[in-house]
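Minutes, project check-in
Item: structure for the 284-residue chain
Input as provided by the requester:
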Amino acid sequence: MKTKIIAGLLALSWVLAAALVYLHKDRVQLVRLPPESLAEWYKPQNKRQVWLHNMFKLRREMQAVKHYALLEQAEPLALWTERLNEHYQKISEMVPEWGGRLDQDVMAELITAQQSNQFGQMGYLLGDLQQSCDSCHTQFRTVTATLYRAPDFQEMRVKPSQSLPETMKALNRKVNSIKIAIGAKDRTWALNSLGELKAGINEMSALCENCHSYLPKVYPDTVVETALEELHGALLSGDSKQQGEALGKVAVSACAQCHGTHRIGYDTQQLIKAKSGLLESLRH
């Protein structure tokens, strides 16, 4: 009797949980988050992208093991197999929560095959090992890259009192002000808004240089500057059609071009970070 009661309560709890998820489905994240310990191996918590570089090493080592197994060259094969095992074990050392995901049996068989010169067997074992890697990548690679490799613009500040997202909203208002002013044939408002847009873009450019320091000038580049000058000239002497076309060039080159990369990553990152209280209560 007691077992039936417990089973009934468990079933009821699952039904209630499912109902809560359905009723609040707009707040539930349908992604599986990686362990929080993974953040320790990515910037900014770490000076280097340690986890990422360990993945690069594993990929290179698996390729080398396959290469030398096919050539049946025992000496370099032993070296690369040892390196592969070393960096494979580092996965559980860095993120203990993922220790159970490692296929230690396959790795042990791979080492045995290498030591006994069973070259033909190693290709099959590498395939099995790759499958275990792929299963983890399928669940976590995209969300991990979004969390730890996409810049967190919310933390960046153009001014002490203004975050980068707030600055972006202000610049968007300037673009819309120009569009409204063109329709109203209010040249003074349009020119003033353009001046404020230029000033805001130049203020923001310093933040772009923090990540894109390898380029001479990433933003505003010559395309953006040319578009802004064309718009200025059109506002002074052009008709509304020319002004609208010039504003369109500014919107594409100064706004949409960067948004196509950064806005998508940032918005997705913020969705993932916004952990729903409901979801947290249902996690196991």
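Outcome recorded: The first helix runs from residue 2 to 23.
No further action items on this chain.
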